[in-house]
Amino acid sequence: MNSPYLTDKAEKVTTEAPVKVPVKAPVKEEENIFLPKPAKILHALPMAKSEKCFRLSFEDGTSMGHQPGQIVEASLFGYGEIPLGIASSPTREGYFELVIRKTGRVSNALWNLNEGETMYIRGPLGKGFPVEEFKGHDVLIIAGGIGLCPTRSMIEYIEDRREEFGRFILFFGARTPKDQLFMDCIARWREEKEWIEYHETVDQADADWKGNVGVITTLFSKTSISKDTRVIICGPPVMYKFVIKELKKLSIPDSHIYVDLERRMKCGVGKCGHCQINDLYVCTDGPVFKFASIKNLEEAF
Amino acid sequence: MRLLFLQKDELAPFVDNLIASHPVVGPKAKKDRFVFDKIESPSELRLDYDTTVLPPKKYFFQPQQDLIKFSPEGFKGCIEPKQRIIFGVHPYDIKAISMLDQLFSEGKKDWNYLANRNAATIIGINVHTVYKYAFFESMGASIVTKGYDLFLTDIGEEGFVVEAATDKGEALLLLGSFDQATPDQMQKRREILYGQTDRCSQKIVHMPEEIAEKVSRSFHHPIWEEMADRCFSCGSCNLVCPTCYCFDVQDVWNLDQASGTRFRTWDGCLTEDFAKVTVQGGEENFREDRASRYRHRIMRKAVYLNTKLEGPACVGCGRCASACPADLANPVHVLNKIMEG
Question: In chain A, what residues touch B257 (CB-CB under 8 Å)?
């Protein structure tokens, strides 16, 4: 096929001065949404067989300045980046904590880091727990497995500002006693009944386990929950439906239930598309959602 | 808006001068299709093209784009935009670029895209040959009034009426012999741009609002299973789409195993692992079956982004229909079936 429009001309036309289109100012590095900040590992604490808790602080001296429930993208160059919930409360100053469970290539590389080494962090990202909506009310946190890590940011927040909240109840379920996380915290939670009503269960007990055995919903029979309670749920995908069914029995309205969801994420800033639930992006619209606002989304649960 | 006129035989000298001033890309023949590629001489430019294999978004949001270079000494971003003139962009692709501009600008701005976009000068042209799969008329994408710097309308043997829409476009006018367009030429331009409304053989008769409303209520429609039954999950429909902008991010080492690159690549929601995460003791795939992934793509195009974009996120270019090896990606078939069912 030949172009009906154009043929090469023998002689080229030349202009006197070079013509250049106007160019906008170049972009500053800090405006690049993919650039992380180096964070020094102050302490790396093994917790269970595959989990370690890292205490970090940004090398430039800035603080995370997050809301409980917000997330970060954590990376190691050459391996990649993964989304993680921040496990510490903004009320604990001078550091932030992340829990790494080794499941894949990136998490294994991060898990192997030691005190004094550097992790690369982007964040805080997304929307956390709307703390104001919890103030003055009873709070129930229901955490399954590694779901304890992002909710711990809220647990610590409540501990530090205890007078701002009503009763505080925590349900924690793990597969086995060996899978329990934050053992030092759990030891305190069992004892410090003046600020926390802690109930725990495991799916499978071992010889030393004296506590409750069964799925997390079995804990509802251990205490009474008022209708006015604000509830946070974070755990494996299968857990939500069953827990919400129990909350319905207690007449807790959907607008008082907050779910912290997990999805595949790459960018963390609402572009890459992996975390979409219908028309929502978990990384920017969540990861914390009011149940009332997403219960009708087909892909949420 | 300023309307000028360029005689047909003045086009080649203009293109020559553009090439001398900036790198120019435009539609070129490649086997039996067309591609946007570097133009070295005016005769390579095929302004009679129907559509290109890939849309021009590849110049702003490259198939593989470096984000960060790292080494033991540190790391830095890779935003290094190159000046470029994109010559001969069809209205539906201009509309798609405007959508991407909006989507990469919302919330936290993605300068990895926007810097490339700002460094580009877009010269649009009206569609000479309609692609057999195109349905841009049904998507309201046959006419655009923004998103370009210059826009050429071929008014026949005489030449082109050229709209200079921006300062960038105006700057390029120095490189050609442009006259003021006469009222007669302006009238011809209007007739061509606004008078030709029935050129696409593929049609969706319903209005986008009606479609969005009905498709959003069709989440459990049997059509998703029916269509996806033959889907290979290859993601070809995603990869050729001018409005798809999902991506994956990966790291790669250089041979020294000390330095390397973090980069992004186009990704597609039709691929099997798009929404898959590794969890304790296994995997969780939030869109595990092909039908749910097939549905997600159509919902993204016809429903989910409509409010934000003030219309569907599809411009009717027809590329997905031609790229699908199983011939099931054509939005016209799916949407018409749902609307008529």
Answer: 78
Residue at A254 is within a domain: yes
- Number of domains forming the structure of chain A: 2
B309 touches chain A (CB under 8 A): no
Q: Are B232 and B332 found together in one domain? A: yes
Give residue B237's domain range. Answer: 208-340
The answer to whether B267 contacts chain A (CB < 8 Å) is yes
Residues B103, B238 share a domain: no
Q: What is the pLDDT of residues A71-127, one digit of tens each?
A: 999 999 999 999 999 999 999 999 999 999 999 899 999 999 999 999 999 999 999
What pLDDT, on the 0 to 100 scale, is given for residue A5? 60
Q: Is residue B280 part of a domain?
A: yes
Q: Are residues B296 and B234 in the same domain?
A: yes
Beta bridge partners of A214: none
pLDDT confidence of residue B20: 95
- Same domain assignment for residues B20 and B169: yes
Confidence band, pLDDT 50/70/90 cuts, at residue A29: low
* Percent of chain B whose predicted confidence (pLDDT) is above 70: 100
Is A294 part of a structural domain of the chain? Answer: no
Residues with Cβ within 8 Å of residue B85, at least 6 apart in sequence? A21, B18, B22, B23, B24, B25, B120, B121, B123, B172
pLDDT digits (tens, 9 = 90+) for B194-209: 988 899 999 998 999 9
Flag whether pLDDT at A9 surpasses 80.
Answer: no
Q: How many CA atoms lie within 13 A of B119 on its CB side?
A: 21
Query: What is the token pair recorded at A48?
Result: 């269970």
Instruction: Please return the burial class of B35, using the count of CB atoms within 10 Å of its CB with bins 0-12, 13-18 and 19+.
Output: middle
In this prediction, residue B146 carries a pLDDT of 96
On whether any CB of chain B is under 8 Å from the CB of A18, the answer is yes
Kindly state whether residues A237 and A152 are assigned to the same domain.
Answer: yes
> Could you tell me if B85 and B271 are in contact, meaning their C-beta atoms sit under 8 angstroms apart?
no
Q: What is the pLDDT of residue B294?
A: 96
Q: Which of A284, A269, A169, A273 is nearest to A216 (CA)?
A: A169
To the nearest whole Å, the CA of A219 is away from the closest chain B CA by 23
pLDDT in tens, B62-108: 999 999 999 999 999 999 999 999 999 999 999 999 999 999 999 99
- What local confidence, expressed as pLDDT, does residue B283 receive? 87
User: Residue A51 is part of which domain span?
Assistant: 31-125
The reply to whether A160 falls in a domain is yes
A23 assigned to some structural domain: no
Domain boundary, last residue among A245, A260, A275 = A260
Interchain proximity B260–A78, CB inside 8 Å: yes
* B104: CB partners within 8 A, 6+ apart: A271, B61, B110, B113, B114, B117, B245
Q: Over 70: is that where the pLDDT of A3 sits?
A: no
Boundary (domain end) residue, out of A76, A110, A125? A125
> In what side-by-side order are the strands of the sheet with B84-89?
B33-38, B24-30, B84-89, B120-125, B150-154, B159-164, B2-7, B179-180
Asked if the C-beta of A122 comes within 8 angstroms of chain B's C-beta atoms, the answer is no
Strand stretches in B55-205, DSSP E = 64-71, 74-77, 84-89, 120-125, 150-154, 159-164, 179-180
The SS3 of residue B339 is: helix
E-strand spans in A224-271? Answer: 230-234, 257-260
Count structural domains, chain B.
2
Residues B177 and B71 in one domain: yes
Query: What is the distance, to the nearest Å, from the Cα of residue A268 to the centroid of all Cα atoms in its chain?
Result: 11
